[in-house]
Amino acid sequence: MQDFQYKNGSLYCENVSLSRIAEKVGTPFFVYSHQALRQQLRAYHEAFSDVPHLVAFAMKANANIAVLKLFSNEGGGADIVSAGELHRALVAGIDPQKLVFAGVGKTKREMAAALKAGILMFNIESSQELTALDETAKELGLKAPVALRVNPNVDPKTHPYISTGLKKSKFGIEITRAVSEYQLAAKLLNIDVVGIHSHIGSQLTEVQPFVDALALVSELIEVLRAKNFNILHWDIGGGLGITYDKENPPLPNELAKAILPLLKKSGCHIILEPGRSLTANAGALVTQVIYSKESDVKNFIVVDAGMNDLPRPSLYQAYHAMLPLVENHRPEKVVDVVGPICESGDFLAQDRALPQLLPGECLAVMSAGAYAFTMSSNYNARSRPPEILVHGDLFDVIRERETMEDLLRGEKIPDFLLR
Ligand code: LLP
């Protein structure tokens, strides 16, 4: 997180003090470092420079079009999972030939949009989905480039909600059934088999599950090639973890070192789908203290951001580090940092030791560049915060704070209620 640092007692993102942004745009807000984002993407490019590759950013982590444009300028593509993400990626100017489309529930309407856009590859997760794609492509007079997502049944050793590569998960096709699914694909006239895909989970902090899963996929590639399937693209998924607290996950070059021999041997064009590791630690959520209160058993700090802005703590008991915007050396207290939402699950931190904070002072909730804004909601009719991109000593609002009009957009009171 070296792009968020204290200088003379004030927390900076690159060369901009976060207090300065707070004064200009108010709180809460999300802030991202251009330099950190670019650096993370470059780390992947360097790590995998020995193989032809594409870094298809899993944009569910951060879908702001400015972030997508930044990655696209650096040669990146995107892993999309909906028509909405396709639209965003195209608006940001990402080359459709750098888009891969994942997800267990793609509708025919979404498939049609992606076919018309001319994306690189659909990652298909079931035989019904394969048939639906074949029908959609036929209606459009097109051929659909396809990889099958295989489920290697490897334990990624991460939170159960974000673990996807086990047999019991809804994702992918069991690796033992893969050959017969490929044979089905080969029979479909509007399907063009071009690759293979796997993704076993998120926030992985060890290399071994990647190695185990990819070794199984590598064997499968050989079996498929022996049966004359054309496996040009090998999409190895995403999942590399980050440091939220004390985790010590591998860096992209450490992952590369462990798996490059397998990847090289395949001769494939390699696709990577990192999300969190590209953006999480390039971002923070800045929030202001409204009140503090004490009970016999707890101390609370009530802030102006809540679970609607950053649901990860409530949803996954996730830890996000917190830094006061102005360094303070007051004694520490163990507190729950809670939002204004009317639910007990509305917390950003529990039992956290923080220096005493007064109303009006601000905190940065760290590692909020991934699965933060994209998972935010309007619960309690709260406007979603603006997003800010810092570049050196400049900053730009890359998404405005939602207005009251935004909150009502599309709603109406029907005539029969007005009579
Ligand atoms: N590829 C596929 C097919 C995925 O499903 C995902 C994430 C990724 C790539 C990117 O994984 P990453 O590199 O970000 O680990 N909301 C959760 C994370 C959900 C991940 C879903 N899939 C969280 O906040 O922790």
Strand percentage lies at 25-35%
| Overall structural domain count | 2
Give the overall shape, derived from the CA principal axes.
Answer: globular
Second rung of CATH, namely the architecture of the largest domain: Alpha-Beta Barrel
Unreliable stretches: none
The small molecules bound here are: ligand LLP
Q: Whole-Å distance between the termini?
A: 58 Å
Please work out how many helical segments DSSP would assign: 12
The major β-sheet equals: 9 strands, mixed
Estimated structural class: alpha/beta
CATH class of the largest domain: Alpha Beta
Give a description of the structure.
The protein is α/β, with parallel strands linked by helices and 419 residues long. The chain folds into two domains: 4-32 and 280-408, Lyase, Ornithine Decarboxylase, Chain A, domain 1, CATH 2.40.37.10; 34-278, Alanine racemase (TIM Barrel, Alpha-Beta Barrel), CATH 3.20.20. 29% of the residues lie in helices and 26% in strands. The protein contains twelve helices and 21 strands. The strands form three sheets. Strands 4, 14, 15, 16, 17, 18, 19, 20 and 21 form a nine-stranded mixed sheet that branches. A hairpin with a 4-residue loop joins strand 14 (283-294) and strand 15. The longest helix is centred in the middle third of the chain and has 19 residues, at 208-226. The protein is globular and about 70 Å long. It binds ligand LLP.
Quick structural summary:
The protein has 419 residues and is of the alpha/beta class.
